[in-house]
Amino acid sequence: MAMKHYPPAFKADAVALYRSRPGTTIAHVADELGINRETLRSWIREDDDARSTQTTTTAWAARSGQASAATESVEEENQRLRAQVAVLTTERDILRKAAAYFAAEMKP
Question: Which CATH class is domain 1-65?
């Protein structure tokens, strides 16, 4: 079987989808997305490694006196991400309502 190459945005979205659903399994999310379970698992591990590296870098910046600049950028990023979450939540709700509508319309 040929190896599939996924764009980085898809990988990030898949990991974010897994992380946004507490209690879900990697297998469930992978099946929903139509990807191999081990592929998703490796993406999650890569993201964990990247997060731990980022945490280490942030801790070093705090000790070296660069905490204020890092804190400001983190606060700006949080604000941007909160706005993005609000948009995505609205889109998700619209899609759920549309799916429910069409599912009800398909029933005999």
Answer: mainly alpha
Domain boundaries, the chain: 1-65, 66-108
Q: pTM of the full predicted structure?
A: 0.51
Q: What is the pLDDT along the chain (108 residues), one digit of tens a residue?
A: 567 888 989 999 999 999 998 888 999 999 999 999 999 999 999 999 888 887 666 666 666 665 556 666 888 889 999 999 999 999 998 988 888 888 888 876
Token pair 């999650």: residue: 44
The rounded distance, in Å, linking the Cα atoms of 20 and 22 is 6
What's the angle, vertex CA 28, arms to CA 22 and CA 32, rounded to 5? Answer: 115
Query: If you compute the radius of gyration of the chain from its CA atoms, what whole number of angstroms results?
Result: 19
